[in-house]
Amino acid sequence: MTQPQDILAFWFSEGPDTARKAWFLKDDAFDASIRAQFGDLLVPAREGALDSWAETPDGALALLLILDQFPRNLHRGHADAFASDSHALTIARQTVLTRRFDLAVTPTQRSFLYLPFEHSEAMADQNLSVALFEGLRDHPAMAAPNGVIDYAWRHRIVIQRFGRYPHRNTPLGRPSTPAEQAWLDAGGGF
Fold first, then answer.
1. pLDDT tens across 122-166, in order?
2. Domain of life of the organism in this record (predicted)?
């Protein structure tokens, strides 16, 4: 049976404070590894079957990787990529705001506890995301140009401008406004 440490050993295979390029790039081999080792955990995690993991810092981190990151890797371009976002946000709120488990993990690991706020389409969550990521500014890798703090601000700007992420419109069956379509046609990047 898969345990939180199995998830963390896989995701942070180069060390708990070492970033991996595969995390945020399309990498079919990396996605295949996630699918083979952990793909069967996505639905049970989304349905709450693994919520007990959130009682420890490592367990909460592993659960948020399953809820927030793994779907994005395994369901790129499909609605299922966002299907567990609301549950991830609930777990992130408990983990970060109530239990303060973010202070018990490395800065790199901490960023994955904050990503559910960045992935939210609610402005209040975007404001919290930026505040949380700004708290990592003392760590050079986090504050580097195109680092996690920079991306938190970029995501906030998109939500502030559109009230949602336009690149999710097609997978979620939402029509794009002319302004959103123009942004998407121009590259729609963060």
1. 999 999 999 999 999 988 777 788 889 999 999 999 999 999 999
2. Bacteria
